Amino acid sequence: MPAFDTEGVRVLGVRHHGPGSARAVQAELERLRPEAVLIEGPPEADALLHLAGELEPPVALLVHRTGREARSGGERGGWAFWPFASFSPEWVALRYAVDHGVEARFCDLPAAHSLAERPADTGEPDPPDEGTGPEHTRADPLGALARAAGYDDTERWWDDVVEQRGDGEPSPFPAIQEAMAAVRAETGAGDVRTERREAHMRQVLRSTLRAGYHRVAVVCGAWHAPALHETARHTAKADTALLKGLPRTKVDATWVPWTHGRLAAAGYRAGVTAPGWYHHLFTAPDRPVHRWLTDAARVLRRDEEQAVSSAHVIEGIRLAESLAVLRGRPLAGLEEVREALTAVLCEGKEARAALVHGRLALGERMGSVPDTTPMVPLQRDLAAQRRRLRLKAEPFTRDLDLDLRKESHRERGVLLHRLRVLDVEWGVPRTPEGSHRGTFREAWRLRWEPEMDVALIEAARWGATVEEAAAARLVDLADQADLRGVTALTEQCLLAELDSALPTVLARLTDRAATDGDVTGLMAALPPLARAGRYGDVRRTEGAHLRSVAEGLLRRVCAGLPPALHGLDDDAAARIATLIDHTHHAVTLLDEEPLRTWTTTLATLAGDDRLPGRVAGRLDRILSDAGELDRDTLRRRLARTMSPGTDPARAAAWLEGFLQGSGLVLVHDDTLLDLIDAWLTGLAPERFADVLPLLRRTFGAFAAPERRQIGAAATRVALPAGTASLPLDPERAAPALAAAGVLLTRAAADRSHTPGKATTV
Amino acid sequence: MTSTAEITDTSRALRPHAEQTHADELSALAAADTRTRPQGWRLSPHAVVDYLLGTTLEDGTEITPKYIGARRIAETAVATLATDRALLLLGVPGTAKTWLSEHLAAAVCGDSTLLVQGTAGTSEEAVRYGWNYARLLAEGPSEAALVPGPVMNAMSRGTLARVEELTRMPSEVQDGLITVLSEKSLPVPELGTEVQAGRGFNLIATANDRDRGVNDLSSALRRRFNTVVLPVPDTAEEEVDIVTRRVDQLGRSLQLPEVATSLTEIRRVVTVFRELRAGATEDGSAKVKSPSGTLSTAEAISVVTNGIALSAHFGDGQLRPADIAAGIQGAVVQDRISDGVAWREYLETVARDRDGWDEFYRACREVGA
């Protein structure tokens, strides 16, 4: 029993993001002059419709869960996007409604239901409009139609029949509707979800009619067109029954900027492969192929510095058109312009053509939303900071180099670090190019992705400003992290200048340090803290508190170190030697008193023959470099290590630890070198073979000039002792000696250049 | 009709032209072709693509594929000719450039014989026109004394002219084509006249983009061409298919006695060529040295044909590894020293241990690799 007069209702079945559909919708709306427009989309966004006039596409409606459900755990997937590009029919309908002051409503099943139904573990944000358009893959109804029309490619068929329409052609909607009705009759209307969605669309249509609107246009996926057209045949009662008892959740909706790259992203079912091309088709007033190839020629001239003349463009257009005729297409399409680009404009250079074509076909651009768009306070704060710091959110990858000595640069770095704490990876640190290193520099790689708005919305529970939220998040993370985790967080906290979180994080660090028995963990924690002392100068963070925490850590390290050094295998010894090294560097950044504590600890440890060779060598080196070990003691220790009573493997390990990093000490201390030399030459052949790999590893790590200098020093040391035993004939050697003498005097003159070389000659 | 066809009996020709070999297919296509044909064309562009790529007509006539490769390449080539733009086929040796140009000419205007072979010694007369000097001396410049070149002939008849190895021609001869392509006319200053191209005239040029010692096209000439790059066959299957078809056709036209061509041998030759060309085995597990030659599909075809001839006349009528060994070595070893090493290494490291390659390996060793 049809209760409503559906006479004035027109259903416009479209393909999502189809420029031809968009044109047809535009023409049809102009003709119909409807009083109300219904659009496939989440009704939760009805309140946002008035903003459409200020949006710049591509934008997307973001509907996300709010309230308790969203906060339970870190589960993703509590949101969905409805993207709109300038060439989307839905967008055209929206703009029409806003521009003409016509009532507009979204009529799809509320996202409150679809988001509630979504299993919690689906990772990908998946738009709930799957299977509504021609990309409906389950039964592929349009595939059947395309095959019937003699096409093997559905997209292409739809492109030819609908999308590549010019202005002024008759409305395609009745035909689309009939075709869909035919396919639906054959394959069935779809699953329960589709039925529910269509039921809801009809319900909205009924209520619109009830509200007194007579001429109503409905813009929805082509698949649904027949179901809506026959609204009169369905009873409101049945539809209500279908929609009864659906789970629902609390949701909120807003507009977010979207990008062409995201529209084209694989895996998104209503996506389009060439948004740039579609945008062009929709915005170009006429002669799309002419304009496209002219643009391509400009890009080639500008970016590829290739001489492309108008004659090229003319011939390219002719080729594209004649290819279209050959292939029986009404108009040259993307493939034809691509061939023309390759064969004519790029003169057969396939790679260059592919590059330019790819860039144009994507046509990367990012939409924008006005300030009045509902945003979580966090987004608003970020927008304000972006404006203040002149950082634009762009969909391209852009490198940013910061000099932290400049106030504005420092603030940008801090903002990016804070966002990283909130899992908004807008900026990712990159390794800077050669000349831009230094503690006062930061190198970033920026790229804004629409999903980052979601991350912001999810992070909204942490606070109203970026600073507040990041601090709260950091404290929360620190509560759960282990010692290493807290250490990393401390460093992040310092970089992000989250002063309010620092005391708590440092307190956590002290707690973990107290309970963590692993001294290596403590040692790993120290360097970032000490480094922070240095940042303190650049970043003006309060350093005293930090230092006291670091000193506390150090005391624990000093206490825990001795027992940790025994019974280690080679790998563990190497690891701990490196850690000791790092700790030592860190300690030198602290005050004198902790440095003394540290060196005293090391001094008592060193000289213990039970230590692994590697560690013992390292300790001796550190102490000797720090001036805590006088030459004689060092020589005695070396002599003892190198004496025949010691296992040669341990001696070699000692040497590795001792020389780790730099061997220059050997160049400057002949006694040391002499001892090592004597040890080496005194080794039994088979023992020598045993330690050879170790020695190679040790000396192989040095830079070539360093090795050369050590070699030179070794000859210097070895010669006086061995001259007598060498079977030299003084007479025959005389000329060589004389020549060497000349060389040496000459070398003395320009010693500043190559002191090492002169002696090797 | 061409003059060549008038004096040579097709059945006796060593290598009949494409339009002679496939006369049946061409007439069947013309009969079934209902689409509009550009002026001067024997077939519609659509039918030309069908001729090149093969199809089955409604009356059941089988059109064999001439070019095996991407459809878009054939379509771009034909569409280019249809827009009266000159077509430049570019590619490494043996990628069927000449083959495609001959068949294009055969299908579009039924005459693939108006050919200029580009060499370092190609003169302008060979491209445009020359003189019958006896007449010239006796009667002075006159049309009767003029000897038109292939391009001039094609212009006056409104058919396709072909230029092989365009980049091997001296630059000044190349540039002589600019007027022809832009003005579509060929002035004869001696007579004070010109030959204007009839509708249907166009030019197909081929060039090799890997050769050394070539004369690169001037940009003025270059921009009068649409360029289509012909790729090396993508997959081994595609290449085996090409070789099998061509060997079959060649064997027929050379009237070789029927030899059971085994697909195994063809596949083996193609595999050897592909692996040496790519510098790695097909499964990617081992690297091999690449010899200096191009090892194109065309060479693979000639190796197999050669093998068939050997087997037919001196062998047991069955294509055996021994029939192929000599040919394959000749194709691979262009430079005796370096290529010899590459080939021996390939035999020892790859061929020797491969299942079912024993006989081939031994045969190659016998030839004296």
Describe what you observe in this structure.
The complex is a heterodimer of chains A (761) and B (369). Chain A folds into four domains: 9-263, no CATH class; 284-362; 377-462, no CATH class; 589-702, no CATH class. Chain A has 761 residues and is of the alpha/beta class. In chain A, helix 8 (192-210) packs across helix 10 (236-243), helix 23 runs antiparallel to helix 24 and helix 24 (544-564) runs parallel beside helix 26 (592-605). The longest helix of chain A is centred in the last third of the chain and has 21 residues, at 519-539. Chain A has 35 helices and ten strands. Chain B is of the alpha/beta class and 369 residues long. Chain B folds into two domains: 3-229, P-loop containing nucleotide triphosphate hydrolases (Rossmann fold), CATH 3.40.50.300; 236-367. Chain B is 48% helix and 12% strand. Chain B contains 17 helices and eleven strands. Chain B has helices spanning 3-7, 18-21, 23-32, 45-53, 71-82, 97-109, 124-127, 133-139, 150-157, 171-182, 219-222, 236-253, 263-278, 297-314, 321-332, 336-351, 358-367; strands at residues 55-56, 62-63, 86-91, 115-117, 129-131, 146-148, 160-164, 185-188, 193-196, 202-208, 225-229. In chain B, the strands form four sheets. In chain B, strands 4-7-10-3-11 form a five-stranded parallel sheet. In chain B, a hairpin with a 4-residue loop joins strand 8 and strand 9 (193-196). In chain B, helix 4 (45-53) crosses helix 6 and helix 13 runs antiparallel to helix 14. Chain B is globular and about 70 Å long. Mean pLDDT of chain B is 85; it is low at 1-5. The chains are: A alpha/beta (761), B alpha/beta (369). Chains A and B meet through helix 14 and helix 15 of A and helix 4, helix 5 and strand 11 of B.
